[in-house]
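Hi everyone, sorry if this is the wrong subforum. Our group has a chain we'd like a structural model of before ordering constructs, and none of us has done structure prediction before. Sequence below.
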Amino acid sequence: MRQAVQAVQHCFDHKVFHSDIHSANILINVQTLELKLIDFGCGSLSSNSAYPSLEYAGANEIRSPEVVMDQTYHAVPLNVWQLGVLLYEMVNGSSIDYTYVQVKFENPNLSEDEETFALQSELEAVEKQIQDLLEKQTRLRERITALETSRAEARKSAVSFHRDYNTSSTSTPRVSLHRAQAKRTRSAQMNFTPAPAHQRRKGASQDR
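Answer:
Right subforum, don't worry. Here is the predicted structure as C-alpha cells:
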C-alpha cells in the first residue's frame, strides 16, 4: 500500500493526475514485490482547479462522492478516495458493495480544501528550503572561522621566526667586531709605549 501511495505522490510531483487508480491498473513483481502504476489513459495534467464531474473518465466503482453528487471534483481528494477503495479490497479481498455503504464526511467541503492543501504543501517546501539554507550558513561560518584561525596561527609563526632570525643574524657580527677592535687597541698600546731613559741614551750614542 505504501508503494501505491508513493506512486500517486510521484505522479503529482510531476504534475500528472491519474484518475483511475484501482487493482486492475497496478502491476506487482512477484520476485521483488515492486509495484508499478499503469494505464494513464484517463490521466491528465494535475491542477489545483476543480474538474467537471461530467468529464470524469475513471471506473464508476471508484468514483468519489463529490463526482456523483457535485458538479466538480478535485484531483487529490479523488485519488485519496481511490486509494481507500484499493486498501479496502486488499484487506477484504473483495470490492465495496455500495448498496450497503453510507458515506458521511466530517468535513463536507473536502474538495474545497484542495487550495489549502496546495498552499500547505508549498509552505512546507519553502520551510525546508529555509532550513537547508540555515544549515548551509552554519557550515560556511564554521569554515570561515577555521580558516581565519589557521591564518592567524600562520602569521604568528611567521613573526616568531622573523624575530628569531634577526636576533641570530645580528648577534654574531657584533661579537666579531668587538674582538677585532680589542686586538687593534692592544696593538696600538704596544707600539706607542715609550722606551726607558737609559735605552734612549744608548741609542743616541750609537747614532753618533
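For your construct planning: The radius of gyration is 49 Å. The first strand starts at residue 16 and ends at 17.
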